[in-house]
Write a structure and sequence with these properties.
- It is a single chain.
- Helix content is about 40%, strand content about 20%.
- It has 8 helices and 5 strands.
- The two termini are about 15 Å apart.
- The protein is an alpha/beta fold.
- It has a 5-stranded parallel sheet with strand order 2-3-4-1-5, with helices on both faces.
- It has one domain: Rossmann fold (3-Layer(aba) Sandwich).
Length: about 150
């Protein structure tokens, strides 16, 4: 399905992320740069939400100067985009994901680098589910557009 603004709705990927968030405290959406991670995450948390952090944005970086003070009180789904820029957040995410009851889940977005995968899986073992974001599927485009592509 394509939105009026031309954005392709990634129905399959939305469902994959929703399912992963039900099972896991932290979900990592990984793919190469510029492949739609941020756009997909915006379907879960608005860009201007206090629960949304873009680690390429100086304002988000400033908000995370004291990450524990910033992240601990948040409730619901928290999105952290470009997580590979702050791998020092992984130990804190582990602590926050172990709270009971669990006030927040985390959707972390990053480029699928081997170092990031290794570090996140070591630090967040048993708490993290990875959802790889692939290219667009023909089903994402809708039946009317499949012949064109």
């Amino acid at each position: 399905m394509v939105h009026a603004a031309g954005m392709i709705e990634r129905i399959t990927d939305v469902k994959l992320v929703q399912s992963a968030l039900k099972r896991s405290r932290i979900v990592a959406l990984l793919s190469p740069r510029q492949s739609g991670k941020t756009t997909l995450a915006r379907q879960f948390v608005a860009a201007d939400s206090l629960n949304c952090f873009d680690l390429e944005d100086p304002l988000s970086l400033a908000r995370l100067a004291e990450p524990d003070i910033t992240l601990r009180p948040l409730k619901g789904l928290v999105v952290i985009d470009e997580i590979q820029r702050r791998p020092d957040l992984f130990p804190l995410l582990r602590v926050l994901a172990d709270r009971k009851p669990l006030p927040a889940r985390f959707l972390i977005l990053g480029s699928a680098s081997p170092d990031l995968l290794r570090q996140s899986s070591e630090t967040l073992a048993g708490r993290l589910e990875t959802v790889p974001l692939e290219g667009f599927r023909l089903s994402d485009l809708g039946a009317a557009r499949q012949t064109r592509h």
